[in-house]
Amino acid sequence: MSKPSRPVADIRSYHAHVYFDPATTRGQAEWLREQVAERFRVRLGRWHERRIGPHDQAMFQIAFLTGVFPTLVPWLMINHGDLNVLIHPNTDNARKDHIGNAIWIGERLRIHSEVLPESEEVNLEMEPNTEPTLQP
Ligand code: ZN
């Protein structure tokens, strides 16, 4: 018997992780963050100036609900510049979310999967902290 496919409703939200090099591309990351804040209702995470958790480079996180995906992701595709972006779903399997089931814009970076749990309670706290005024 074949195993059933996972329903798309398993995806509660998404993260985009925007990586930068503090010495060379932090300015681009600041620009991108501002542009996103002006155009999308998302939750912007704080700046991480060095690698943290499974991430191999400095970055900040954009958390967003599924309805934002069809505009934010194409917008990032054509506006990421020299920055590399990881986009992953949030389901109940953080390891799969970050490794096999993620998409990348730009170059694919290393993910330190050993720190990711195989399963976890998804944090549904996704209160947007931007007030967009512009169209994407
Ligand atoms: Zn994430």
Kindly report the oligomeric state of this protein. single chain
Q: Name the poorly predicted regions.
A: none
What integer value in Å does the Rg equal?
A: 15 Å
Count of individual helical segments? 3
Number of strands: 5
Report strand order across the widest sheet.
2-3-1-4-5
Structural class: alpha+beta
Helix content bin: 10-25%
**How much of the sequence is in beta strands?**
15-25%
Label the overall shape. Answer: globular
Query: Separation of termini?
Result: 45 Å
Q: Which small-molecule ligands are present, each listed once?
A: zinc ion
Mean pLDDT: 92
For the largest beta-sheet, the strand count, sense and barrel status come to: 5 strands, antiparallel
Element-level helix/strand string = EHEEHEHE
Your description of this structure?
By secondary structure, the chain is α+β, with helices and mostly antiparallel strands. It has helices at 26-39, 69-79, 94-98, and strands at 13-19, 43-44, 59-64, 84-90, 103-105. Helices cover 22% and strands 18% of the residues. It is globular and about 50 Å long. 26% of the residues are buried. The mean pLDDT is 92. The site of zinc ion has 4 residues, from β1.
Topology diagram in text:
Blueprint: E1 13-19, H1 26-39, E2 43-44, E3 59-64, H2 69-79, E4 84-90, H3 94-98, E5 103-105
Bound molecules: zinc ion.
The site of zinc ion (ZN) has 4 residues, from strand 1.
